[in-house]
Amino acid sequence: MPLYDYRCNDCNQIFELLVKLSEVPTCPGCGSQQLEKQVSLTAPQGQTAGILARARSQAAREGHFSNYSPAERPRR
To answer: How much is the pTM?
Structure first.
């Protein structure tokens, strides 16, 4: 089931709902079905220095350097 953002036209409440394709969403505040689907924000990538360092050390252990930039790859 996809997660959608909605804005109620009657009470102007903004909320998220898990919605099946066969069900009609309703506002949790007022029960209205007069809703506008909103553009959802995407999740941030979350590539912090720690995550990158762990990924790079794992890649080096496995013998591939695909997640290194060309300047960072070891010279052979």
So the answer is: 0.50
